[in-house]
Amino acid sequence: MDAIARNVPRNVPLAQLHPLHAILLGFPSSLFAGALLSDLAYQATFQVQWANFSAWLIAGGLLVGAFVLLWALVGFVRSPAMRRGRAALYLAAIAAMWALGFINALVHAKDAFATMPEGLYLSAGTALLALFAAWIGYSGMPSREAR
User: Fold this and answer.
1) Cα(134)–Cα(118) distance, integer angstroms
2) Phi and psi dihedrals of 15, rounded to 5?
3) Rounded to the nearest 10 degrees, how much is the dihedral formed by the CA atoms of 56, 131, 94, 105?
4) Which of 3, 53, 59, 142 could form a disulfide with 38 if both were Cys (CB 3.0 to 4.6 A apart)?
């Protein structure tokens, strides 16, 4: 038997995300991470276009992140098993990511020079929350059968 297979607990079945949910979950993490990178580029060069890139990447992350949040919320309401543990933490991370991303979008709506350093800090927090939520989502959650 494989060493990895021996370490997997067999008492709690793990469910994978729905394939469309998994695809959508990949977008906010990459878009918010890209916004962080373009904020770092703006901080280093003060070229206004980098701030514009950040604003567009944040808007895209919020758009797709809203669908991810809606999907996670529907799954949370429909399944009693999803109201505990990792699934509740996943929903909280997605909601916090979206809320912080919205505040970040409001900050980035200002003049490019006025976005620093708050925009950089908010982009870092949003990117970390998006990566954390993706890690929870892709690592599996208890399925509906585990009660």
Assistant:
1) 24
2) -105, 140
3) -20
4) 53
Q: What is the third-level CATH fold of 18-137? A: Four Helix Bundle (Hemerythrin (Met), subunit A) (1.20.120)
Q: What residue segments make up the domains of the chain, in order of their start? A: 18-137
| Tokens (6 digits) for 115 | 């976005």
* pLDDT at residue 17, as a whole number: 80
Contacts of 53 (CB under 8 A, 6+ apart): 34, 35, 38
CB 128 within 8 A of CB 97: no
Give the integer Cα–Cα distance in Å for 35 and 72: 23
List C-alpha distances in Å: 76 to 69, 113, 137, 138: 10, 41, 13, 16
Give per-residue pLDDT as tens, 81-140.
Answer: 666 788 889 999 999 999 999 999 999 999 989 999 999 999 999 999 999 999 999 987
